[in-house]
């Protein structure tokens, strides 16, 4: 009997993760975001193995941000590896602005490029290679910004990119697994020097903060943070359903805005009351409220002493009888 060599465990894990992520995706084109790093290269290899069995065609999209010397050569090398895996390789060169800082600007340009490629090929899904370690870093950075429960949610395994499915199959796998998968398949990843630049907060979290937490609190910190993100996301989804069910009965359209019942808000727990306030402002005026702004609006319900209108981003809130009325700024 012919002996077949056993599949490397890391390769098996990456393939299973992709197979699971694609299980509910319609047949069609799949776009894989490929930087050339170990995470995205392992994702490309696993997708190249799994997607054809599901009747899917493969496109890799490498975004050249033009922020480093030699970035064009790096993009070309990544594209050649994608072609070696049987993928239709695309390179998208983008101009990175400065809005929100260099990391945010690069991310905005990158996702816009991925969406552009996905539209051109009528993609069934876009796959990106965020790992469990990325999730842990995201949660810690969110906690440092003090953004509350939202910061604990991290990244979703499945979300939308301009209406198209955006999938993160590797959120339960660590970087050690993706590197091992590349090594087992003879793939040569590129190491981005920016991933070792301590001027970036994410790099400091990766290189300094997480190792200290592991040393002082024991191993498994990244896994624990990822589990916390998953649980927080489940809680957020439950709250969102409660808000949707509640809001239909307590919200009315008002002249130049919208109004909410004071007794109904008062009858709800603070956590739900605050979410309703934020939801109303976000859905009606397209603005996000800080916690301090949310609490000021809530005082119109729980601690009203005749205080006047509260200026908020894009709107103002005031109490009129038994209702909180939100009107557009300047009305």
From TrEMBL:
Which intervals hold domain tRNA(Ile)-lysidine/2-thiocytidine synthase N-terminal?
A: 30-207
Residue positions binding ATP:
35-40
Start and end residues of each tRNA(Ile)-lysidine synthase substrate-binding domain: 261-321
Its recorded reaction(s) are: cytidine(34) in tRNA(Ile2) + L-lysine + ATP = lysidine(34) in tRNA(Ile2) + AMP + diphosphate + H(+)
Name its cellular compartments: Cytoplasm
Q: Which GO terms describe its molecular function?
A: ATP binding; tRNA(Ile)-lysidine synthase activity
E.C. no = 6.3.4.19
Q: Does the keyword ATP-binding apply?
A: yes
**Predominant location:** cytoplasm
Q: Say which domain of life the source belongs to.
A: Bacteria
- Write out the GO biological process terms: tRNA modification
List the record's Gene Ontology CC terms alphabetically: cytoplasm
Q: Which Pfam families match?
A: ATP_bind_3 (PF01171), TilS (PF09179)
Q: Which PANTHER family match?
A: TRNA(ILE)-LYSIDINE SYNTHASE-RELATED
Q: Domain description from the entry?
A: The N-terminal region contains the highly conserved SGGXDS motif, predicted to be a P-loop motif involved in ATP binding.
Name the family: Belongs to the tRNA(Ile)-lysidine synthase family.
Explain the purpose of this protein. Answer: Ligates lysine onto the cytidine present at position 34 of the AUA codon-specific tRNA(Ile) that contains the anticodon CAU, in an ATP-dependent manner. Cytidine is converted to lysidine, thus changing the amino acid specificity of the tRNA from methionine to isoleucine.
Put simply, this protein is called tRNA(Ile)-lysidine synthase
């Amino acid at each position: 009997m012919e002996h077949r060599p056993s599949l490397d465990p890391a390769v098996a894990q990456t393939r299973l993760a992709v197979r699971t992520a694609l299980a509910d995706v319609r047949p069609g084109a799949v776009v894989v975001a490929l930087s050339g790093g170990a995470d995205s290269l392992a994702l490309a290899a696993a997708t190249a193995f799994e997607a054809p069995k599901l009747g899917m065609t493969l496109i890799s999209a490498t975004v050249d941000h033009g922020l480093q010397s030699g970035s064009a050569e790096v993009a070309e090398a990544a594209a050649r590896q994608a072609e070696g895996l049987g993928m239709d390789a695309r390179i998208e060169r983008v101009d990175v602005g400065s809005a929100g800082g260099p990391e945010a600007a690069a991310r905005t340009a990158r996702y816009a490029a991925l969406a552009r490629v996905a539209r051109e090929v009528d993609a069934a899904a876009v796959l990106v290679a965020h790992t469990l370690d990325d999730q842990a870093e995201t949660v810690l950075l969110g906690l440092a910004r003090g953004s509350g429960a939202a910061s604990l949610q991290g990244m979703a395994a499945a979300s939308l990119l301009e209406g198209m499915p955006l999938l993160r199959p590797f959120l339960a796998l660590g970087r050690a697994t993706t590197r091992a998968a590349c090594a087992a398949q003879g793939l040569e990843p590129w190491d981005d020097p920016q991933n070792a630049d301590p001027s970036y907060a994410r790099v400091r979290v990766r290189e300094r903060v997480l190792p200290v937490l592991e040393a002082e609190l024991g191993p498994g910190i990244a896994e624990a943070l990822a589990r916390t993100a998953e649980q927080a996301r489940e809680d957020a989804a439950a709250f969102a359903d409660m808000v949707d069910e509640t809001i239909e009965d307590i919200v009315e359209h008002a002249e130049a805005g919208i109004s909410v019942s004071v007794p109904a808000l008062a009858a709800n727990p603070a956590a739900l009351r605050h979410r309703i306030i934020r939801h109303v402002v976000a859905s009606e005026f397209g603005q996000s409220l800080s916690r301090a702004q949310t609490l000021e609006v809530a005082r119109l319900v729980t601690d009203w002493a005749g205080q006047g209108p509260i200026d908020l981003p894009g709107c103002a809130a005031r109490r009129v009888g038994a209702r909180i009325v939100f009107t557009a700024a300047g009305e």
